[in-house]
Design goal:
CATH topology: Lipocalin
Number of domains: 1
Number of strands: 9
Distance between the termini: 73 Å
CATH architecture: Beta Barrel
Structural class: alpha+beta
Order of helices and strands: HHEEEEEEEEHE
Largest sheet: 8 strands, antiparallel, barrel
CATH class: Mainly Beta
Shape: globular
Oligomer: single chain
Helix content: 10-25%
C-alpha cells in the first residue's frame, strides 16, 4: 500500500521540524563603560520581565530591594529583601566578573552541577536607573530575566520605554512583564 504524496510530504516535514529548536535572540552587549563603584548600593526592583513569568504571577511580586556591594576583587555580593506581610524574605548571591566590564557569572552558592547563569548590566546612569539582563541555563531550557532597577520610586522619562523595548527585543510579550503591587505598601524598616 502506498501513502498519498501529500501525506508522505507532511510526515517528512513533521520529522524534520521535530529536530529543530528555535534559537533564542542574541543578548545585547553589556554597557560600554561600566563603573562598578558607581553601580554599587541599594536599588529598588520596579519591574521584571522573563520567559517564565505569566500574568497570574503579578500578584506574587511584592516590592523588593537589591543591594550590590563591590569587593576588592571586582565581585559583587548581592542581597535581596522582599516584604511579605509582617516578615521579610531574603536571598543572596555573588556576581563574578567576566571578560567584559558589566558582565558577570552568578554564583548561587549551591555547589557543583548548579545551573549556569550569566548576567549583564545593559544600561544605567548609576543615579536613577539600571537595566539588567540575566540568562540561566538549565538542563532543558534557558530562563531569561530582565530587571528594571531604580534608586527611588521615580524613573526618568523614557526608562520604562527602554525596559519594554529590551523585553520585546528578547522575544517577550507584555504577558511576560510583571511589576510589584505597591497598593497599600509602605516600607517597614523594622521588617527588612
Amino acid at each position: 500500500m502506498r501513502l498519498p504524496c501529500g501525506l508522505w510530504l507532511w510526515l517528512s516535514l513533521l520529522k524534520v521540524l521535530q529536530g529543530q529548536t528555535p534559537r533564542p535572540p542574541t543578548l545585547p552587549p553589556p554597557m560600554q563603560s561600566f563603573q562598578g563603584n558607581q553601580f554599587q548600593g541599594e536599588w529598588f526592583v520596579l519591574g521584571l520581565a522573563g520567559n517564565s513569568f505569566r500574568p497570574e504571577h503579578r500578584a506574587l511580586l511584592n516590592p523588593f530591594t537589591a543591594t550590590f556591594e563591590l569587593s576588592d576583587d571586582g565581585r559583587f555580593e548581592v542581597w535581596n529583601a522582599m516584604t511579605r506581610g509582617q516578615h521579610c524574605d531574603t536571598w543572596s548571591y555573588v556576581l563574578i566578573p567576566a571578560a567584559q566590564p558589566g558582565q558577570f557569572t552568578v554564583d548561587h552558592g549551591v555547589g557543583p552541577g548548579a545551573d549556569r547563569e550569566e548576567t549583564r548590566v545593559v544600561n544605567s546612569d548609576y543615579t536613577q536607573f539600571a537595566l539588567m539582563l540575566s540568562r540561566r541555563h538549565t538542563s532543558k531550557l534557558a530562563i531569561l530575566r530582565i530587571s528594571l532597577l531604580s534608586r527611588n520610586w521615580l524613573l526618568p522619562p523614557g526608562t520604562l520605554d527602554q525596559f519594554f523595548c529590551l523585553s520585546r527585543a528578547q522575544g517577550l510579550s507584555d504577558d511576560n512583564i510583571v511589576f510589584p503591587d505597591v497598593t497599600d505598601w509602605s516600607p517597614h524598616a523594622s521588617v527588612c
